[in-house]
Every structure is written in C-alpha cells, then in structure tokens.
Batch of 2 targets.
Target 1
Amino acid sequence: MNYRTVMILLAAGLALGGCQSNKTTQKQQAVAQWNAARAGVMGGLARNQFESGNLDKCRKSLDEALRLEPTNASLHVLAAKLELEQGRLEFAARELTTAAALDAKNAEVDYLQGVIQQRWRKLDAALLCYQQAALKNPTELAYPLAAGEMLVSLGRTEEALGLLRTQLPFFDHSAPLRDATAQLLGQMGRHAEAADLLREAMILSPQDDAIRARLGLELYFAQRFSEAADNLARVIDTEPYCKRADLLAALAECQMRQNHPRQARALLETALNLDGSSAGLWLASAKCAMQLDDPRRCELSLQKAMALDDANPDASVLLGYLRLKQTRYDEALAAFERANQLAPSDSVSLCMIGFVLEKMQRSQEALRCYAQALKIKPGDELATRLMASVNLRD
C-alpha cells in the first residue's frame, strides 16, 4: 500500500470518527434539553403543589425534577422552602448553600437564609442576609420590610424607621409599606405622623379593614376624636373587628369626648361582655357613668376597676372626683392622696388635693400643693388657675 493510499484511508477514518462524535454530542444535547423541559414541567407542578399545601406530592415532583436537572438553582430554592415549611432548618440551609453556588445573584436565596437565621435567633446574621437580598433585588418590598423587622428586634427602632422611610419614594403605591412605617411611628408615640401615613395607605387600599382599624386607633391617640370615631365606627361593623374590645373602648372614649355618653355606654357594655376582666374597660365605664350623672353605676364600675388593678392612679383620681361631687371631702382627699402616692410626678392629683383642701378651708396647705404641682410641671394651666383663684380670694 503506497503512502497516498494510507493518507486517504486515515483521513476517511478521522472523518467517520468526527461524524460519530458529532452525533454523540447532538444526542447528549437533545437528552439534556429534554430533561430540562421535563424538569421545568415537574418543577412547575411542584410549585403548584407547594402553594396548595400538598407537601407530600410536592416532594415527589421536586425529587423527580432535581433528578432530571440537578443544577437548577430555582429547584433547590423550592426544596429549601419545602424543608422550611416542615421545620427542617438544617436541610433547608443545605439546599440554599447549593442554590447560592449555582446562582450567586439570586436574592431569594439570601432572603430565605435570613429566615433560617431568624428562626435560629441569630438576628444580626438574619439582618445581614435581608440587607443583601435587598441590594440584589431592590424591587422586592419583602426584603427591606424583613430588614426593618430585624432592626426593631435588635432595639434599633430609629434605624428601622429610617430604612422604611427611604423606601417610600421607590414603592410609591405600596399600602403595606406605609402601614408598616406607621406602626413603627405609633410604637414611638408619634401618633399624628402615623395617622397621616395610614390615611395614605387607606387611599391605596380602601377596602383594608386592618389598616382602617389602625388608622382609627392612631387618630384616637392623636386626640383627633371626630376622625377617629368615623373610622372606628365603620370598622367595628365588620368581622372580626366587632369583637375587638379595644376598638369599642376607643370609640366609646371618642363618643364621650364629643359629648355622646349614651352611645359610649352602649359600646362599653358590649366591650365588657367581650372582656370583663379589663380594669381599663371598667374605668372607662365609670367615666361614662360620671358623665351621665349616674353615681351608683360609677361607684360599682370603680369598685370593679380597683379590684382588678388597685395600683391604677386614674381610678383613685376618678374616685376622688366622685367623692368631691358627693361633698364627702375627707374621702375625696384620701382618694387624691392615694393617686399622688401611686403617681408622684402627676400634677393633676396634687392640684385636686389642693382643691379639696380649699373646700375644707385649708387655703395655705392648698397653696403649697399648687406650688408643688407647678414645680413638677412649670406653667401647668390647672395649677396656675387654682393658685390665682386662692390669691384673689385672699
């Protein structure tokens, strides 16, 4: 066989080998594409089963999908969710580690890692995970909300408020973000600001009774009683808010402030049927009875309130008012003195001690009480007016 013949045969062999190799590669690609397609179908089925709560079937579908396409990061994320749902935190963490290695840009991986750290009570680590998730996907509101929750849990409420407020321009149409920010403001005692944000949230989500209930309470705490009453009256007609004693009591207080004590009494009776062990409700009932000039019911309600909480200075103050109205000055003085012992920094009880002392013709002692009240609260209107009236009479 000559050299030319050998070269021709060698070239033909290489060509045949190349064709065979190409056929093998094409077949592998086709199998991979088919497996990816089947994995996509099984993964979609697993997600539907997970969302509907059918966890056993979800696991079977997910196992099949992962067998077909083990490098699919989203399938490992779903596997982590399934493990989380079943309380298997270690297994969930393992799945997320795999998902992170396959797709380092997946923000949901960081978020779910934060959930695991939070359940392990590693709050600083959870916060870092939520912050990383928010950086990777700034369009997902759940991530900064979770970071804000962690900041609050770590006692960094001002930082949490600052974080949520920076998100408001980016989520301009988000009622939940305004609701969450308002709840933080309410916890900090900034009720007027909270009410303003909740009003915006109501515009964005007008059918959300939970937001309306919080709006009513924040308006009540901000002493905007008319607006509070409007919102509270609307929400207590619906389930489950008609069974919320705190909402009924707040609405009753609004009615009393607007000089509608009879409507307030009906509301308080309903609230007490729901929670008869609340000293605050019995005290509100006593105030309402006082406004209705019903001393017997006022006294009975006060007895209930003080039996449930004998260290409440407001109950002693109200008892003092009742005794003062009954011209039982010795008992009124004792009640106001008790209130002052329970709350020494409250100027009202001192003023009322002085007022009773005046009624008992003890003006010099009364003046000392008013002076002490002004020392506690300089410029106090009640103390100033009472002191001036004593000096004028003298």
Target 2
Amino acid sequence: MENNLKNFLIFGGSGLIGSSVAKYFAEKTNHKIIIADIARNKKLNKYKNIEYHKVDVRNEKEIKDFIKNLNKNKIYINGVLIATYPKSKNWPIKFENLISNDLKNNLFYQLGVPIIISQQLLPIFKKQNYGNIIFISSIQGLMSPKFDHYVDTNMISPIEYTGAKAGIIAITKYLAKYLKNTNIRVNCIAPGGIKDNQNKKFLKKYKSSCLSKGLLDPKDLEGTIDFLFSSSSQFINGQTIIIDDGWTL
C-alpha cells in the first residue's frame, strides 16, 4: 500500500516535461520530488522539497549506482516518471544521412535506458510491494510524422525517434503483463508536440491538424500524470494515454 508521504522520482526532471511535472508535484503538500538528471534546472532551486541527484542516464553504471543508493537508504517510491530524452551529438539526422553509430546510440538512449531504469527499480518495488511507472511516448509512436508540416523549415523528424517511441508503447504493455500480480503498474502517455521555439510555419501547419490549441505546453500533461500516479487509476495498467488535441484523429 502507498504511505502518506508521496515520493516521486523523475528521471529527466530538469528537462522540458520533467521540470514542469517536478514543479507541479513540489507545490502539492507533503510531496517530495527526487530528480535524477545530468544537469540541475535552476528554476527548481526555490523548492525545498525537490532533491536533485546528478545522473547521466547514458551511463548504465550511474543509473545502477543511483538506484542502488535509493534502495540502501530505504526510500519509498510512490511513482516514477521516466522523462529522459538524451540524444547523440548529431541529432537530428535526416534519414538519408543516418549512420549506424548514431542510430545505435539514440535507440539505446531513448528506448534502452527506460528499460534499464525499470529493471533496476524492480527490487525497490518488490520490497515495498508497490510500484508505479509512467513512460513518455509520443503521438509519433502511434502514427508516422506528418511530413508536410516540415516543408520549408529546417526541422527534421528522425526515424529513430518514431522507432523508440513506438517501442515505449510496446514495453509498457510488456512490463505491465510481465509484472502481473506484483502490485506494480506500468503506463505511458503519448503527448502531442510540445512548444519549444519551433518554426512559425511549422506551428501553423501543426495547429491545422489539431482541434483547438495545436502544440501543447508541458503543463498540459500534469493532470494526466497526477491521475496515473493516484489511486484513482489503480486499475489502469499497460495503457497509453494520448494527449494531443486531436492530432491523431
């Protein structure tokens, strides 16, 4: 069972989505947020209930050492959001120019890393007889990109991004079923595009495929993540929740 003190662990908690969720939970009474990221987000420094740990998730040993330390210190984890988004130096790369080394690295960073994190968290969850993991997929894990949106922009939608995000949906289902009868839930959200200084032409074209807003703000994901972390969603398991303002319709 969940205890009264809520401890939320966010891998990638300094990033665009992760920092928004960290702030959201930090402002909720009795909630403690543990951030694991390669860099600290200074905007979160004012929150006393946010604890930052430097972890480079591209390094498997750093992931293992960090989680081993949580286990050693008997930290109860109510929920884990895996919002990491590490990329190779050459990201993004046009399909015709893609080389095997970048492909290998990015598929590991964006798909392999969430698998390893989940594997390493398992002893903690089994010990506390409770676990709740939320992955972040994408609408492009469900559908191919709308390539016409990228015409006359310098933006690229890499093929390995689509592959990794489709893989996140697959491992969500796999782990939920694999962990049957353990009281560990695994779900993911598939957000639409998030505002991040995109090209104006892209913004206009993207919005034409939506129903009202177009590109989302990170805060538009917070309520769904809160719901998935709560007991109100206790029988939602192995599911992908789409938050896209109708882009996939």
